[in-house]
Amino acid sequence: MITVENLTKSFQGVNALNGVTLDVEAGTVLGVVGPSGAGKSTLARCVALLERPDSGAIRVDGTDITSLDGSALRAARRQIGVVPQGDSLLRQRTAAGNIALPLESAGVPGPQRRTRVGELLDLVGLTDKATAYPDQLSGGQRQRIAVARALAANPSVLLADEPTSALDPETTGSVLTVLDRARAELGVTVLVVTHDMGVVRKICDDVAVLEQGRVVEHGKVLDLVNNPVSRTSSALLPAVDLNPINENSYDRVADVVLVGFAAVGALLPEAAHRFGVELNIVGGGLTRLGETPVARFRLGLNGERSDSALEWIGEAGGAVQRSLKGPQGVAA
Amino acid sequence: MRSATPWSDVVAYLVEATGETLYMVGVSTVIATLLGVPVGVWLQLTAKGGLRPNAAVHRVLSFVTDLGRSMPFIVLLVALTSVTRLIVGGSIGSTAVIVPLAVGAIPFVGRLVQNILSEVHVTVVEAAITTGASTLKIVRSVLIRESMPALINAIGVTVIALIGYSAMAGVIGGGGLGDLAIREGYQRFNDRILWSTVAWLAVLTTVIQLGFTRAARASDRRRHASV
Question: Rounded to whole angstroms, how far apart are CA atoms A76 and B18?
Fold first, then answer.
């Protein structure tokens, strides 16, 4: 749906983007993450058509939109709904008035405009706040109105630039829910630029890690967590070594990643039973990526067939990351 | 020893002069607003970081604006005589004063407006840009509407300034409160008229200022009672 090809941008000789290439499939949510100064904001501003890249292309449905001008540029902007970083609502307009702005720009007549604004208020769950002014809304409510505004003109792509940066964890959840609904109910393709891995954990299908203006990792979140050396897995999965353990009390100690209900629930007891080993979870924990439970456990095993048990877990779909005690690279 | 002017005559003087002042100031404020706001918008659009940055245009516009603002009004009043005659068909009287008042106020309003518009937060403007709004739409619905309370206050400031300028209207026979105080009061040693006029001017400007402050607050949707 939206592809970014080899995008470069420099400011006064400093390269903010060094050939960024991304691909977001229609109807999916891509999270672009990375440390401050990695180029996230520049990328967001280029995709929002607020900044022109030095070279490269941004294609929406195959059409390059980076070199447009005048009314073609304005039409392209309506194709990309933007939730800007920070407070961006008109303070002299009601919530409904703010949502109506893109519709006015698009020349949608009054009655249709009102209907559409009503639908969007419903989508973001703020129907009762239609006539409230931004100063009467909480930060999370303002941000949801900003999402509704971004969706008003039926864009095919929704770009959210640090949508949760100024919010507390609870309101962050409500804003992310709204982004997720936009994808689920409107089929919008979503690109979220964020420094918060929690956003990736909750709503992203894909993730791209940006470092020094380059994409250093790009793929499906559930694939990347299975890759022990990926930045995504170390950032998203529960830490395993919170509690120092006495490794001497086990024959084998290994880390394992389990994805999905079946794996998390049944794999370990099954392994213990099948190979007659004592299998304890000595570290790590359980998290959730979207709807999928994902676990990273540190296991301590006792018994003659411990290596076989680990091997079996690997074959059955768990990713055994490293064996801390015993033969290295027991299973992949 | 001349007996003091009767109060009824003082009131009659004041009423007539107030009418002249309000006429001169009112019409010139309307003209200065109609022409000064676009000047301010243009200044802000062409400024660095504006919607249509253009250093050359901005510099020329800034220069002309500041030149206009630095001109003492009394000089403008006499210097524009021929222009005034061309526009209103005469060069004396209240109507004739309107031309230099308006001309003097346009750059004043322009600069005030630019300063106010530049205060609209860049995030808000950029958000509007991303909705595909045209420049005209952004100027109207974002820059001007978001600044409305401050703009109303700026017009109030302009009215007060023009009341001050209009005191010199007497030079070309424009009349008004300033002229009353100077000619009937000061030059003829009529303290009653002088001080009555001063007191009345204080009341008038206070009321006008209050009115504009109220209007500005009424137009402001920020910080309304919470839900």
Answer: 57
CATH code (residue B163): 1.10.3720.10
When pLDDT is averaged across residues B56-82 and rounded to a whole number, the result is 92
Sign of CA dihedral A50, A51, A52, A58: negative
- Contact assignment for A82 to B226 by CB distance below 8 Å: no
Reported pTM: 0.87
Domain around B19: 7-219
Q: Which among A191, A249, A201, A209 is positioned nearest to A28, based on CA atoms?
A: A191
For chain A, list the domains and their CATH numbers. Answer: 2-233 (3.40.50.300), 237-325 (3.30.70.260)
Kindly provide the ipTM of the predicted complex, given to two decimals: 0.86
Cα gap B111→B62, rounded to integer Å: 9
A40-61 pLDDT, tens digit per residue, is 999 999 999 999 999 999 999 8
Q: How far apart are CA A140 and CA A31, in angstroms?
A: 20
Give A-chain residues touching B133 at CB under 8 angstroms: 74, 101-102, 104-105
- Whether residue A135 and residue B221 make contact (CB cut-off 8 A), yes or no, is yes
The tens digit of pLDDT for each residue in A192-220 reads: 999 988 899 999 999 999 999 999 999 99
Nearest to A50 among B129, B137, B227 (CB): B129
Q: By the CB < 8 Å criterion, does B214 face chain A?
A: no
Tell me if B201 sits within 8 A of B163, measured CB to CB: yes
| Residue with token string 């001017």 | B201
